[in-house]
Fold this protein.
Amino acid sequence: MSANQSLPNIVILTGAGISAESGLKTFRDNDGLWENHSVEEVATPEAFEQNPSLVYRFYNARRAQLQEDDVVPNAAHLALAKLEKAFGHKMMLVTQNVDDLHERGGSESVYHMHGKLLSARCAISQQTFDWRESFDHTTQCPCCKRVTLRPDIVWFGEIPMYMEEIYDALSQADMFIAIGTSGNVYPAAGFVQIAKENGAHTIEANLEPGVSNALFDESFTGPASRIVPQWVDELISKYAL
Ligand SMILES: [Zn+2]
């Protein structure tokens, strides 16, 4: 059979749950705080304006931790890379995660709707630069040679990236799966709704039971490293790839 013609269009959304088994710290202590601040409090444009050094420090710490030896992609990341090799452009991978674990797992096309930790953005030109080191209000921007760099992260109150491409793909999707992200919180809640309206089969995969959303046709509960490889292998064998 001519494989590509008969393959379904799949949109995959991943959230924090897929990276939970990869050794990433949550940066919250027992009170749910980071250095006495809620994470929501440091991840806003207002915080960056009022206390830039605090915001730089928070992201510098997260960027450094992401590059520690014990942070590695898990079986779920690897499985989605395998699916990309089989489905090519029939599949779109969207992530809410700012880590690079999908890329390290072998995925080539990843839509980071909330930005990337290993990237810096010029606040003036909006140009982005791969960035693995720490940076702050004294770091010169490569494009304008001024001190204009900010984390390439979508903060609370800012508009997520690639929304047009994502809504486009959702409107043509035959299948939508949300992995490790609550289906009740926007934007995932909106994504499943659009996919559903367009007739897609909708699936959720979460560690915790009980976060189910009525718009999902199918629900899997358990660790992503077990559920996702199973789901991928079934798809690949179903379409004889
Ligand atoms: Zn610049």
Observations:
- The two ends are 10 Å apart (CA to CA).
- The chain is about 35% helix and 20% strand.
- Residues 122, 124-125, 141, 143-144, 148 surround zinc ion (CB under 6 Å).
